[in-house]
Each structure stands twice: as structure tokens, then as C-alpha cells.
């Protein structure tokens, strides 16, 4: 027996998975650069959300065409991957279609038959996706943030899937023994005749070639994820789990501010007294967010999960009326900056070295931040429970509380509230005048 | 006709050693904005008609802090919140109704953590319970068959999932409720939220309120119904910008019902 093929296979597999694990670790580290938030509550509701939104695709199908096609690709992707199990066993042990020896033929044929049907459906759906993106040019795929890498990335993924599905079908079509069984080859039987003119040996070589290309392709794809918006196929699950549970209109109350305000309001508290318990009385280093490390880790997970679909942006009132704000761009900028910070840490032996840049201004401009109406349309639209609004709010907090850099009219409004308890310059003592008017 | 309205204050109730059934939180717009004051009065007339024992804080009320919070000024927000909560708790308020979705959202969702726990209702929800309990009746009459479209306020709809109460009230008027292209959870903002009301919009090719008004005008309504004083202003301005103010009226749900009663 010749073990070279098995060894090569094991080496490739180890490298493929090893590299992936390395990137996953980096992903975890980067996400943990964010601020801690307590999301340990309501486990059952969270599981339910994950089951419905990620597994059940409930928000995807709100847009029926894209949703339907996406469900096919998603189901196909998951189910066809069962076949990868067989490929790995065959590759490691040098067997061929181990499934045929361990499963009843009828069951095996049924499985492969359904994989083939799904592969064909995925292929068609992916082509339709490609047409929507590149020929029909759906508006949301052609916004200003969708140039260069984001645009190519989306197409690469589609090409990848087309190639992988083709390889899978060709592999089956050129497996002479499998075709001879003539069961389970529901789709590949129509591809097989394409090769009928070739010698048996040539067909075998094509079969082997397709088999190897298929598994290597899958490993490459696996490692492509980290660099791509396609990461959502993994992160959609934790992201929907950790998604916001409180009403959308409820913004968090900054705890440090609460302590400060309570101290100011309570005449019995001695402001110079030592904090009662622990050291949690101290003020945070800064209010709000000017860079990715100031955001909560859930926001950073959000950024890695974003699929750049642009459903948020297409619903955004500011974006619809030509303002610069695009909630998708907020997420993409956050991810890009986080990657930059991560690379900086890698290059400097695990320590972040000041690079003179930050998320605010270098990525997200003030003009974008002030254009938001806090309407929650983006949050409602996102199929994977991303909350771009919370990032916008954190950055406004930084601008106002750290920099006093609100637009003049807003400063006037706030001064009014401070002085007379209304956003306009009316006297609080006149609040009931309407009664007699 | 305003001479007949009764608007007791919490202080007056307290002086008599009594508790009202509900506190009416008027809000800054409802207190000071000329257009919104009409909504406030319409709602008070309905409360009077239904013999609801309510009170207002009057001069003891202050901004909830919503626009400060959404501008990013958490300090100012919490100062306002804590001050208001002190007043509300001193009066032992249990139940609050307000005609402003921003006040509604803030008091309902953001005050509890700061020590303010109340049952909070939007005025459309409150009016609906009055009808359900038979304390108030609506005659269609005036609005029968009229085309009315409802603009979902973001802070009532998406923010708090209240979509049906205002619609049920419109239907009780026997009016023809027509929905815009974007409605309920897909409703398009009027452009006022997040403190935008108080500043000029950023550069763009259109104003949000004009976009939303166009969506409303697309369904050819006779009335655009609103449930928020800020939406009301934005939509009114939008209708003016489109020079349709002689054909299309922007009215709050409370005004529609009060009007139907000839109040
Ligand atoms: S909340 Fe802000 S960013 Fe999101 S859709 Fe509304 S205006 Fe756009
Ligand atoms: S935030 Fe959500 S809706 Fe917006 S582009 Fe990303 S995945 Fe799509």
C-alpha cells in the first residue's frame, strides 16, 4: 500500500484546521478588547432568539426573494457538509466512499441524492445572487462603502460556492462505480455523459482531481472566513444569542454617571468619603467611545458578524435622504479599525502601541454621527441582530461628555434643559399656562 | 371653548389627601409648543368627558431628559431623570399617561433603573382602555369613510412595539385606514428623533420629513394621523413643503376623537 496520499491529506488537513484555529483565537482576543458587559441574563430567551433568528432565519425571510434564496444556500451548505465527514475519513484512512460500507445502500443513496439536489439548488441560487448583485445592481450593494474589497469579497464568496458545488457534482459524475450503482446520482447522472468519450483512466483522474480540489477548496474557504463578511455563518449564532433583549427604545444608563449624579443629589453623602465597598466607586477613564476598545465587546462581535448586506442602510432615513450616515458603514469601520488595532498588537508583542488613529474621525466622521435620528430602523432590519445605533450613541457620548463637541443648536437645547427644564427657552413656571389659553 | 376644561395638579390632590387615578405627563412639547398644546387640550377634554380622575405636575414637571440622552449627554439626562423621579415618588405616583412617545419611552424604560417604577401608557393605549371599559364612546359620524393614514412614531412603534392601539382607535371612527408603503415596524422616521428636532439636518439631498410626507401623500389620505407632537410638527411642515395643506390635515389621534365628539 502507498500511504503518501494519506499523509499528504493529513498534513493539508492539519494545516487547514490549524490556521483556522489560530485565526479564531485572534478573533476572540480582538473581541475581548471591548468593554465588559453583563449578558448572562435570560438564557432561555437568548437561546430562543438564536434558534429563531440564526438557525430559523426568521429575519432573513422578511425580504422574501433574498430570504428564500438564502435559506437554500444555508440549508445546502450545512447539509452538504455532512459529506465532508466522509471525505475526511476517506482521506485519512485511504478508503473510498466509506459510507457505502457502513450504511445500507438505500440510505447512502438517499443521502448523496439529497446532497446532489441541494448542490444544484445552491448553484442556481448563487448564480441568482450574483445576478442581483452585478447585473441588476440592487441599490444597497452599490453604496459608497461597497467598493474595492467589500465588493470583491461578496463576489469571491459566490464564485467559491459555485466552484465547490461544481466540484462536488463532477466528483460524483466521474465516479464510475458510483454511476454504475445508478442510485443517488440524481443530478450527476446528467453530468456523467459529458465525460463518456474519455478513457476510464482519464475519468478516474478527473474524479480524484475533483475530490482533492473539493476538500482543499473547503479548507481554503474555511480560512477565508476570517478575512471576509462570510464570517457571519459562524458568528450569527453567538451574535443573535447576545443580541439586545430590552425594548429597542431603551438605551443603557451609564452606571458611573448614576453614581456621580446620586452623590450630587444626596446632601447626606460626603463626596470625599471613601467608596463604601470595593473600589468600584471610581470614575471610568472616559465616557463614551472614541475608539474600538471603548465599545462593549458585544458591539465588536457585532462588527465581525456584519454580512454587509445593507438592509440596515436601505432602511435608514438619513441614508435614504442622501446624508453620509450609513449604519452598515458604521459596522464595517468598526471591524476595520478593530483589525488594525489587532495587527498593531500582533506587531508589538501583544501590546497596543499608540498609532495616532482612532475610530472617531479617522473612520467615522462627526457628520455621520449627528445625522442619526435614533429611529432603530437599522436595528429592526438587521437579519443577525446587530445594533449599529448603540455604537453611534456611545460615540455621541464621547463627543458631548469628553469633548463638549455637540452642534451649537444641541448645546443651546441642553443649556435650556439645564436652566429651565425644557429644550426651549421657556420658564418652568409657565408650564401650565396652556390650561388657560 | 377652553373655559370648561378641568386640569387639577398633583399638589391640589395632595392638599385634599387624595390620589388621582393617573398622572398625565404633559411633556415639554405638550406644554409649550403651540401646535402640541392643542393636542394636550384635546386629550384633557377626553379625560374630562370620561370622568377620569387625573392630575398633572404643572410647574413641577421638567423635561424627561430624552433629547439630552440621545444627544449623548448622559449627565444631564440622569440629572433630569433623578429630579423627576424624586417628584413622582414623593407623590407616590403609580400610573402615568403621556401623549409623547419620547416621554413614554424614557419614563417606561429608562427610569426604572434609576428608581422610578411606574405603569406607563401612551395616550392611545389609555384611550383604548377607556373605550374598552365603556367609559368613553366614539361616534364615527364626522370621520366616517374618510381616508386616514397613520404615521408610526419610532419611539412608540419600533422602540416599544405599540402598533395596534392607535390603529384600533382610527377604525373606531369608522374611517378608512390606509397604510403607507412603510408602516408598523418598517415605518419611516419623521426625522425628529435623536434630538434632530432641535438642530438643522446634515447635508443631504432631501429632508426626512419631506420623504415621509411623500410616502403619506402617495396613499392619498384626507388626514395624516400622528401620535407624537414631534412627528406632528414634522409632518405638518412636510405637507406645507408639498403645498398640500388645504387638502390634507395632520392631526393627533386624540384630536380626531375629541373632534368626533364635538369637544
Ligand atoms: S437609528 Fe440612526 S443609523 Fe439607524 S436607521 Fe435610524 S437614523 Fe439610520
Ligand atoms: S448591520 Fe446587519 S443589516 Fe446592516 S449590513 Fe450588517 S448584517 Fe446587514
From TrEMBL, chain A:
Look up the domain of life of the source. Bacteria
Q: Does the keyword ATP-binding apply?
A: no
Keywords carried by this UniProt record: 4Fe-4S, Iron, Iron-sulfur, Membrane, Metal-binding, Oxidoreductase, Transmembrane, Transmembrane helix
The segment(s) forming the 4Fe-4S ferredoxin-type domain are 297-328, 362-394
Please give an example of a GO cellular component term from this record: plasma membrane
A GO molecular function assigned to this protein is: 4 iron, 4 sulfur cluster binding
PANTHER family with a match to the protein in the record = IRON-SULFUR-BINDING OXIDOREDUCTASE FADF-RELATED, IRON-SULFUR-BINDING OXIDOREDUCTASE FADF-RELATED-RELATED
Q: What is this protein called?
A: 4Fe-4S dicluster domain-containing protein
- Give the species this sequence originates from: Flaviramulus basaltis
TrEMBL record, chain B:
Instruction: Kindly give the InterPro entries that the UniProt entry links to this protein.
Output: Cys_rich_dom, HdrC_iron-sulfur_subunit
Q: Which residues form a coiled coil?
A: none
Quote a single Gene Ontology cellular component term.
Answer: plasma membrane
Keywords (alphabetical) are: 4Fe-4S, Iron, Iron-sulfur, Metal-binding, Oxidoreductase
Q: Where is the signal peptide?
A: none
Show the Pfam families listed in the entry.
Answer: CCG
- GO MF, one annotated term: metal ion binding
Name all Cysteine-rich domain ranges.
Answer: 22-108, 148-235
This protein's source sits in the domain of life called Bacteria
Q: Do you know which PANTHER family this protein is assigned to?
A: IRON-SULFUR-BINDING OXIDOREDUCTASE FADF-RELATED, IRON-SULFUR-BINDING OXIDOREDUCTASE FADF-RELATED-RELATED
* Name under which the protein is recorded: Cysteine-rich domain-containing protein
What species does this protein belong to?
A: Flaviramulus basaltis
Amino acid at each position: 500500500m502507498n500511504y503518501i496520499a494519506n499523509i499528504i491529506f493529513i498534513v493539508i488537513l492539519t494545516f487547514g484546521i490549524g490556521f483556522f484555529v489560530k485565526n479564531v483565537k485572534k478573533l476572540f482576543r480582538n473581541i475581548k478588547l471591548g468593554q465588559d458587559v453583563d449578558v448572562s441574563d435570560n438564557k432561555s430567551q437568548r437561546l430562543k432568539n438564536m434558534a429563531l433568528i440564526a438557525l430559523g432565519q426568521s429575519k432573513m425571510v422578511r425580504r422574501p426573494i433574498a430570504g428564500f434564496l438564502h435559506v437554500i444556500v444555508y440549508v445546502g451548505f450545512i447539509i452538504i457538509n455532512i459529506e465532508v465527514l466522509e471525505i475526511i475519513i476517506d482521506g485519512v484512512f485511504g478508503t473510498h466512499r466509506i459510507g457505502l460500507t457502513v450504511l445500507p445502500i438505500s440510505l447512502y443513496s438517499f443521502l448523496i441524492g439529497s446532497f446532489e439536489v441541494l448542490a444544484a439548488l445552491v448553484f442556481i441560487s448563487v448564480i441568482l445572487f450574483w445576478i442581483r448583485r452585478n447585473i441588476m445592481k440592487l441599490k444597497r450593494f452599490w453604496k459608497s462603502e461597497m467598493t474595492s474589497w467589500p465588493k470583491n469579497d461578496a463576489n469571491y464568496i459566490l464564485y467559491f460556492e459555485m466552484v465547490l458545488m461544481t466540484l462536488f457534482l463532477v466528483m460524483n459524475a466521474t465516479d464510475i462505480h458510483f454511476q454504475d450503482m445508478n442510485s443517488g446520482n440524481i443530478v450527476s447522472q446528467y453530468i456523467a455523459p459529458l465525460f463518456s468519450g474519455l478513457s476510464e483512466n482519464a475519468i478516474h483522474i478527473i474524479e480524484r482531481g475533483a475530490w482533492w480540489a473539493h476538500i482543499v477548496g473547503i479548507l481554503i474557504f474555511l480560512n477565508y472566513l476570517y478575512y471576509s463578511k462570510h464570517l457571519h455563518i459562524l458568528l450569527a449564532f453567538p451574535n443573535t444569542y447576545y443580541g439586545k433583549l430590552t425594548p429597542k427604545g431603551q438605551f443603557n444608563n451609564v452606571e458611573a454617571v448614576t453614581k456621580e449624579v446620586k452623590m450630587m443629589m444626596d446632601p447626606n453623602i460626603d463626596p470625599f468619603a471613601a467608596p463604601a465597598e470595593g473600589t468600584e466607586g471610581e470614575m471610568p477613564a472616559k465616557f463614551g467611545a472614541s475608539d474600538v476598545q471603548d465599545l462593549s465587546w458585544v458591539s465588536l462581535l457585532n462588527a465581525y458578524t456584519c454580512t454587509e448586506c445593507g438592509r440596515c442602510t436601505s432602511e435608514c432615513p438619513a441614508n435614504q435622504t442622501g446624508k453620509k450616515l450609513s449604519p452598515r458603514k458604521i459596522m464595517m469601520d468598526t471591524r476595520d479599525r478593530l483589525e488594525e488595532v489587532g495587527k498593531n498588537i500582533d506587531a508589538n508583542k501583544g501590546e497596543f502601541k499608540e498609532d495616532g488613529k482612532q475610530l472617531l474621525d479617522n473612520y467615522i466622521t462627526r457628520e455621520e454621527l449627528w445625522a442619526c435620528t435614533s429611529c432603530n430602523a437599522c436595528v429592526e432590519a438587521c437579519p443577525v441582530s446587530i445594533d449599529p445605533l448603540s455604537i453611534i450613541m456611545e460615540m455621541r457620548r464621547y463627543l458631548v461628555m469628553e469633548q463638549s463637541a455637540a452642534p451649537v443648536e444641541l448645546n443651546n437645547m441642553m443649556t435650556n434643559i439645564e436652566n429651565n427644564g425644557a429644550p426651549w427657552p421657556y420658564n418652568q413656571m409657565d408650564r401650565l399656562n396652556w390650561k388657560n389659553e | 371653548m377652553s373655559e370648561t376644561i378641568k386640569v387639577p395638579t398633583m399638589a391640589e390632590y395632595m392638599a385634599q389627601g387624595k390620589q388621582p387615578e393617573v398622572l398625565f405627563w404633559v411633556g415639554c412639547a405638550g406644554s409649550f409648543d403651540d401646535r402640541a398644546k392643542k393636542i394636550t387640550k384635546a386629550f384633557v377634554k377626553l379625560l374630562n368627558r370620561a370622568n377620569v380622575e387625573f392630575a398633572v405636575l404643572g410647574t413641577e414637571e421638567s423635561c424627561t431628559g430624552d433629547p439630552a440622552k440621545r444627544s449623548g449627554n448622559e449627565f444631564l439626562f440622569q440629572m433630569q431623570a433623578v429630579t423627576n423621579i424624586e417628584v413622582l415618588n414623593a407623590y407616590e405616583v403609580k400610573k402615568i399617561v403621556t401623549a409623547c412617545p419620547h416621554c413614554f419611552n424614557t419614563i417606561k424604560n429608562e427610569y426604572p433603573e434609576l428608581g422610578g417604577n411606574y405603569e406607563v401608557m401612551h395616550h392611545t393605549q389609555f384611550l383604548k382602555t377607556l373605550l374598552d371599559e365603556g367609559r368613553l364612546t366614539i361616534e364615527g359620524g364626522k370621520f366616517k369613510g374618510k381616508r386616514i393614514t397613520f404615521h408610526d412614531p419610532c419611539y412608540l412603534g419600533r422602540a416599544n412595539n405599540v402598533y395596534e392601539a392607535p390603529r384600533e382607535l382610527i377604525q373606531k371612527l369608522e374611517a378608512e385606514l390606509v397604510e403607507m408603503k412603510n408602516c408598523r415596524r418598517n415605518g419611516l422616521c419623521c426625522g425628529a428623533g435623536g434630538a434632530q428636532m432641535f438642530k438643522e439636518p446634515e447635508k443631504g439631498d432631501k429632508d426626512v420629513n419631506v420623504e415621509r410626507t411623500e410616502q403619506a401623500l402617495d396613499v392619498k389620505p384626507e388626514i395624516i394621523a400622528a401620535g407624537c407632537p414631534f412627528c406632528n410638527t414634522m409632518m405638518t411642515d412636510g405637507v406645507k413643503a408639498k403645498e398640500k395643506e388645504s387638502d390634507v390635515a395632520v392631526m393627533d389621534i386624540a384630536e380626531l376623537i375629541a373632534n368626533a365628539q364635538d369637544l
